[in-house]
Design goal:
Blueprint: H1 2-7, E1 12-18, H2 34-47, E2 53-61, H3 70-77, E3 81-85, E4 88-89, E5 98-99, H4 105-116, H5 120-138, E6 142-143, H6 163-178, E7 182-186, H7 188-191, H8 202-210, E8 214-218, H9 231-240, E9 245-249, E10 253-257
Parallel strand pairs: 1-2, 2-3, 3-6, 6-7, 7-8
Antiparallel strand pairs: 4-5, 9-10
The structure holds zinc ion.
Length: about 260
Amino acid sequence: MVLAAINKGMDYFGFSAHAPVPFNDNFALQKEDVNKYLTETERLKEKYKDHIQLFTSMEFDYITDIMEDVNKQAKDYGLDYIIASVHMVKEKSSKLMWFIDGSKQEIYDKQLQEVFDGDIRRGVETFYDQTIRMINNVRPDIVGHLDKIKMHNKDRYFKQTESWYIDLVMETLYAIKENDCICELNTRGLYKGRSDDFFPSTQWIKAAAEMNLKMTVSTDCHNATEVDSLFDKAIEILKESGHKYVWYFDGQWKAEKLT
Ligand SMILES: [Zn+2]
């Protein structure tokens, strides 16, 4: 990853492994591997310091009842910044979770039935309610892929132009603004062919520009060939949508003027 970033001429690069969750999934760091992760990223920072500035972060999953105290965990790890996102949608007092990410649409469909009795509106409202509580409670540096719920939907259960849906996303954007977080423009869904637009969709990138919301660009890469996938296109979309700045981290969050 580091060598790929150096090869692409990057000045800064942040690692953001999925933070541990208190149950088994197949993508988060195991709790017992956290120290290895922190030690290894420190080693790389030092080793490549003349070529690139590296940062250690994690992407925290915010899950109702299960993972709400994100800041306490983050503080223990001493990270440079944090990303918080929702991948698992859960109603209070329920034991079931709806996994809305990953590569399989069948899981999205199956768990929508199991967890929300197929009621898409209840599921989507729970997703955004969880996201807004995450923003208000955690106030992360970066809010990750805020409309990932649309990825496996593919216009089947709901359309992004429905007024109830628009209200939920707008409420989320306001929460980001109010808490002075940075909204992630995430290119992964598009370059993986899982989504036909960025996270968030272009219409929300435009709305964010009108609200003067801070945005940063992330590839959410899971291997070295993806470190800058669709970066240029993301910057173009920001500009076309009316954003004057893109935010980046060099030890502090800063705005770079888009020209
Ligand atoms: Zn994520």
